[in-house]
Amino acid sequence: MYICGVNPDSSDTLSAHGAFPAGGERIEHLCRIVILAARQRHEALEQRIRAALNTSCSHGEVYEALTQLYLFCGFPAALEGLLCLHNVAQTMPADAPLRPEAYDPVAFAARGEELCRRIYTSAYDKMRERLAAAAPDLDQWMIVEGYGKTLARPQLDIGIRELLIVAVLCVGNWERQLFSHLRGALNVGVDAASCRAVIDLADAEDAEARRRHHEILDRILRRST
Fold it and tell me: Of 37, 43, 155, 159, which shows the fewest CB atoms inside 10 Å?
């Protein structure tokens, strides 16, 4: 059952229904792109990418949205998504050539820790202690590879990045991580209505998952009051 009568693969938008309050069409396009990539719906993904590039999104923004998928869906999802973007871009006016960022682990570690603290706020130290005890390698990789190398890249605002993460975690039903990133989205200034709109979009085909994920957000909001 689709919410608002909107098929998640269609060209219709929740923005047009007044259900996507902050950032409107641009953010919704990016969220739909990562949702389709996470679900491996590549034909619909190419159609959505084309619509996004023809309206409100730049090639660089779509590139960033798909690149960060590797943190939450793995390299296969990111690579397939980026190949879809490449296929579409070949038929459109050329952008400036893509240039990889210089690989600087020291710089990545510094900016990664700064961003991670900003997202986790008062929960940061406890989260790092718990992760270091359970998975010390991942604790380091999270800061350098996750937050520093990827999420701290300046091409997309961190609030948009957090909404994209929320969308993908909803699709995968990674609810422990969803709690953390919904809280993180709110911590960096995303409003609750936008979080709800992304949950509705990601869970358009699963009413029970939608209920659970809204309850996670409600739990966070109750704790913050």
Answer: 43
